[in-house]
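User: Can you help me understand a structure? I only have the sequence.
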Amino acid sequence: MKAALLTDIQSIEVRDVPEPEIAGRNDVKLAVHTVGVCGSDMHYYRTGRIGDQVVEFPFTVGHELSATVLDTGADVTSICAGDRVAVDPLICCGKCDQCLAGREHTCRDQAFMGVPGQLDGALSERVVMPDYCCHKIPDEMTMDQAALVEPFSIGMYAQRLAGDVQGKTAAVLGAGPIGLSVLLSLIAAGARKVYMTDIRDNRTELARRLGANWTASPRVQDIVRAIRKDTPEGADIAYECAGEQETADQCLELVKPGGTVLIVGIPELDRLSFDMNYMRRGEIRIQNVRRQNKCVQPAIELIASAQADAAAMITHHYTLDQTFEAFEVVSDYRDNVVKAMIHVAD
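Assistant: Let's start by predicting it. Here is the structure, written out as tokens:
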């Protein structure tokens, strides 16, 4: 079968690789249909690492996928051949303290698709995953929408981590796919007002179309001053979705005393710093966001019901043979790209 492999920094080749086979009674063999290009894929593509997760080339990345079931292990009853599924890329052990506490996303012995030393990624024609990772999608849901379930579920989880947002004010800094997913989740959950920023005009324009009440670029104006002028008491919640020191600093300045800053973006550097004097005086809470937890099915339902137009963020389409071109476009933010989709199946 074909797979797109990272062969070096900023180098991708489509090669023939061995096809995976069902090994366990709860395994599901999948024909990959669509894979979304994620920001974390870009870290591996540009630098070969995220923290201590270092790529050994060649390696296949990708974890935002939709697929069709080809075959199942003997004990699988929840899905069958022919079913269309959205795939949760996390395999958890189910036995550690984190899993037993309902925190499978911080499992101590997890394996995640497209992470070095854990699992090969989804940019291949076939993959095998456990049945609990495969979520059947309704007939009205497209395969592109299903591939967006994984990033959208992160936005939904980030929204839920902040607690009840009904009637609250939020600032979302970074209008990429994850930031837009946070925006859509906040709107669906009843947030009163959402401010959104990004340095790229096409993304702030999209955020406005999707329901953001106020958008701006920090390259054009002082966004902290502008938002504070509009809401002098400060936002209840701020989401850092860009993975940058600048946006982390802005989040601290935007939230009211007792507010919460959620760190959703993945920085390319290993450290972010925070003004402890500012944090202490405002008793500001910092909440990190680790992927998603128990939000895949709610994400499917929200997207399928048309309450969240996640597909609006899709701007580019490629074939598996065009994976290098897709990664180059996303890496350089060319052609007003927001979300690029790679169609593995014809």
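Now, to help you interpret it: The chain has two domains: 2-136+309-343, 152-288. The CA atoms of residues 182 and 276 lie 26 Å apart. Let me know which part you'd like to focus on.
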